[in-house]
């Protein structure tokens, strides 16, 4: 698979893109969101679904922090040292394809 690259977005571009997605924020060079679930098994299912989307995009999160009834996901593109369109492509799929 090809290495993930892209053009680093400006903070203004990032803030503009974030307006399209409820609950996502830009912090410390990454975009992130905390998702609430009904139960621990639902959290496990959500994390597994996120991992599948990331694999299809060949673009993986900075981290996924899983708790009992929530998961926090954070993305940036390490090769450029910031957020790129690749990050927002993954976010778009997460928001469209995974019911929480």
- Distance between the amino and carboxyl termini: 29 Å
State the helical fraction.
Answer: 25-40%
Return the string of H and E elements: HEEHEEH
Shape: globular
What percentage of amino acids are in beta strands?
15-25%
- Give the structural class: alpha+beta
Strands side by side in the biggest sheet: 1-2-4-3
**Residue-averaged pLDDT:** 95
Largest sheet: 4 strands, antiparallel
Radius of gyration: 13 Å
- Using DSSP, what is the number of strands? 4
As residue ranges, the low-confidence spans are: none
The helix tally amounts to: 3
Strand and helix layout:
Layout: H1 11-18, E1 25-27, E2 30-36, H2 40-57, E3 63-66, E4 70-75, H3 85-97
Helix pairs in contact: 2-3
Describe what this molecule looks like in 3D.
The structure is a single chain. This protein is an alpha+beta fold. The chain has a domain at 19-25 and 69-100. Helices cover 39% and strands 20% of the residues. It contains 3 helices and 4 strands; from the N terminus they run αββαββα. It has a 4-stranded antiparallel beta sheet. The longest helix has 18 residues, at 40-57. The relative contact order is 0.26. The model has no long low-confidence stretch (mean pLDDT 95).
């Amino acid at each position: 698979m090809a290495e993930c690259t892209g053009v680093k977005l400006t903070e203004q571009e990032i803030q503009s893109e974030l307006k399209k997605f409820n609950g996502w924020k830009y912090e410390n060079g990454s975009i992130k969101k905390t998702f609430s679930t009904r139960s621990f098994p639902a959290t496990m299912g959500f994390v597994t679904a996120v991992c599948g989307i990331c694999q299809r995009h060949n673009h993986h999160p900075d981290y996924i922090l899983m708790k009992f009834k929530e998961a926090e996901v954070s993305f940036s593109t390490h090769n450029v040292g910031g957020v790129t369109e690749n990050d927002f492509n993954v976010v778009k799929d997460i928001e469209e394809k995974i019911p929480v």
